[in-house]
């Protein structure tokens, strides 16, 4: 690995200032399960690595029955997967966190790290999309939130400017009737990257559905929502014919590539199959 | 069956605590004062002409000590590597000269004071290439328009009747093997049904957990010492000696604890470079390969494309079999292409013909991987046989039993009579354990069966068993322990001499101190080195009894060795007059007496060269569940049966059976070195998939003991066979679950999905 400056801020403001100082040549480090591998492989060569582990404010999961859930940037995937409130109220997120890498990786890797790696195959990203997640961003001058759906701009790319740091993720309180489903299509049960990830959230109402979210992973440059398919699903009773149209619309939202993990054909077909399966399961 | 005190007991492995606690010392743990680190510039292109190598920037980096290229060595430095353990000879220059023929080929070596500086220097070396067309698939490489990869490539006539016959000639051929018995054409004419298929088996890496590593030191006198991870310290010694022109007696190789080899750690790979750089710099040099380097510049198992055609009658009589195998050798010959002959297997098939070819491609050379060639050849053979059973509507086990050879039959391939084989019994044992004949058909569930034959090797070696002055034993040899054989050798010595297994220490020497030992591979260790240890222990026992007879003033014949426990439960091994415990001498006393007699310390020696072994089979039954929409497969159950001759240690036997089956599942299900335009696409373990423990079923192992005439206590070599049948068993199970044959390995979810899709399109689903 190349030589770099290793910085350890103790406040968010300090971290933002350090990130601003080094501009694009700085990288924040949380669990390091993506960053260190990329550095070891020479894919990224940051001048400065800003370690976030000493920032007290970046720890913890906060639950408020009115405001919803807040997961700080330092929270590990293991904490997410085992958290009782998340398991009860956001099961798709708990499931998604649970299928990342291995226990060892999840003990180090963070949810926000998974988000900020901006990989289209990130397991937790479709769940954050389907749950209407908001990304909390701090900079030396201000702090604001944006929808998860607006966060990524391409593989490994996001809207963050130099000096900006993601401090956490917020999820609204789920309605009592909300049901969610996440499926990771992979060869192995652990230590694998998704060939396709499908997360569907909806409120079932006598054969029809409201508040439908269809979030897809590993089938486009970023994780995305199949919005046209969502609209189709909210138009009335979901018959078999209608389900076919929803699945087709979900497939139409994708632009997969063929790579060593799967072909584009297979990915498209699986988006269709898994979307159908999700609705069948959730409306049952 | 004879009663044994130590043999057949599941004693814990002698190396277990050190490995579990991290105390074991692997090659990468060796560090010497003043040590330098070496790394390589590997070609990023599979086929290219080297236009220019500029090391000037790298040389300016502080801490860089030496950079070597073929130019620096001189064009004449093309060396022959001779592996005397395997009788293999390979002529290859240390670095690519003018042309690189695979991605990963070494262009230059850098030596620096730290691994980080070394890596920076490697990146600072500029190489200009002129890219040449590359070929990564054998079916492309044989075509008339394919680039010729090496000047010595042959162009041979394509065999008639095979799917590639219309090419007329095969290009880029570097090896050939042909066999014919009976009359296949007449056989095919007799058949009711012809079943043929092309079976593609990918190249896989041995994926040992520990990449290659070594440290080399050259003393001022020129004496070379190499610490390394290897399956054979003597093969490393001969390899370094021949490749660098150093007298063998000037080299000492120290084998560290090995983190897996599976056939991929026999000969030299990084060793000559470490020695050469240590000679040039006068300082110790360390090389540790990365996983990526293992993938790009290791010596994996060859892939193969095998066409098999079988003629069969409705009553299950196989009338003829023919095969053509195209084996992917990479840029040098060396694949076990004769394994195409697995179409004969352990069956009494009369009419057989095969033609096998080693084909050059722009990939690294290959080497052994657990039962070299057998998983590939057996997969094609057994998968096709299962398709034959399906075609005539016969139970695949019944079909095998009907055609299987037994004691007294002559093997088709070499006309040798079979003895002490248990093919049918092994297959039936697996069937019984799995409940094959009582199985129920559940939706999306499938069962498969296959067998894999193996004829283990034998190799020369010697061992020394010493009675230590505290009455314990020391077993000393130069054999590397890759699978738990130290534990088995300790048990053999304990059994023969008559001491508890805890009283034996198994010590490994280096090439300077230890007598010659064969390499640890080919399922030879417990058969060959086990015999050497047994003979050494018998030799020691004779000496002990002679001394005890003298001491007790009796004859040797009237003595017996006993390991009776004393009042406190402590076992005190002793020699006594038969049935008369009061007239006895403990081994500790005997050792002390020996020190005071003219004979001196009691040392037994034993040697072994070669004796015939018996072919054996591994039979496996696998049950799977397939999601027909996604192709995702779960392995529900795997039952393996094996004729082991004699299980010295049941734990070790089960470990071998489970490990082999896991590697077989991996090859059949998810493992594959993927290439595109000559470049490897999955050089890291994230995308080069092998199963995790979560993906595996509990593997059930049953073993039979039909003793070998020649193995110690009847031992047969069993390390390799358990990998052989698994992919073919899986192939049938997938078909049973889905109705689709997935002939190309591995049967990934996508391949299964495609096969189902194809079936649906054709209206079969």
Key phrases:
heterodimer; A: 284 residues; alpha+beta; Uridine Diphospho-n-acetylenolpyruvylglucosamine Reductase, domain 2; Uridine Diphospho-n-acetylenolpyruvylglucosamine Reductase, domain 3; Enolase-like, domain 1; 3 domains; 5-stranded antiparallel sheet; 4-stranded antiparallel sheet; 34% helix; 25% strand; B: 765 residues; Aldehyde Oxidoreductase, domain 3; Aldehyde Oxidoreductase, domain 4; 6-stranded mixed sheet; 31 strands; 26% helix; 27% strand
CATH architecture type of the largest domain in chain B: 2-Layer Sandwich
- Beta-strand share of residues of chain A: 25-35%
CATH class group of the largest domain in chain B: Alpha Beta
Parts with pLDDT < 50 across at least 5 consecutive residues of chain A: none
How would you briefly describe this protein structure?
Chain A is of the alpha+beta class. Chain A contains eleven helices and 14 strands.
Topology:
The complex is a heterodimer of chains A (284) and B (765).
Chain A: E1 5-7, H1 12-22, E2 26-29, H2 35-40, E3 48-51, E4 61-64, E5 68-72, H3 77-82, H4 84-89, H5 91-98, H6 103-108, H7 111-116, H8 124-130, E6 134-138, E7 143-147, E8 152-154, E9 157-158, E10 165-171, E11 179-185, E12 196-205, E13 208-217, E14 224-225, H9 227-233, H10 240-252, H11 264-283
Parallel strand pairs in A: 1-3, 2-3
Antiparallel strand pairs in A: 4-5, 5-10, 6-7, 6-10, 8-9, 11-12, 12-13, 13-14
Chain B: H1 16-21, E1 36-42, E2 48-54, H2 56-59, E3 64-69, H3 70-73, E4 78-83, E5 88-93, E6 99-100, E7 106-112, H4 115-124, E8 126-131, H5 138-141, E9 154-157, E10 169-181, H6 184-190, E11 193-201, E12 213-218, E13 224-228, H7 233-244, E14 251-255, H8 271-281, E15 285-288, H9 291-297, E16 304-312, E17 318-330, E18 352-360, H10 374-392, H11 396-403, H12 423-434, E19 445-454, E20 461-467, E21 473-477, H13 485-497, E22 504-508, H14 525-552, E23 559-562, E24 574-577, E25 580-586, H15 587-596, E26 603-608, E27 616-626, E28 633-643, H16 650-669, E29 675-676, E30 679-680, E31 699-704, H17 726-738, H18 749-761
Parallel strand pairs in B: 1-15, 13-14, 17-18, 21-22, 28-31
Antiparallel strand pairs in B: 1-7, 2-6, 2-8, 3-7, 4-5, 9-10, 10-18, 11-16, 12-13, 12-15, 16-17, 19-27, 20-21, 20-26, 23-24, 24-25, 27-28, 29-30
Helix pairs in contact in B: 7-8, 10-17, 13-14, 14-15, 16-17
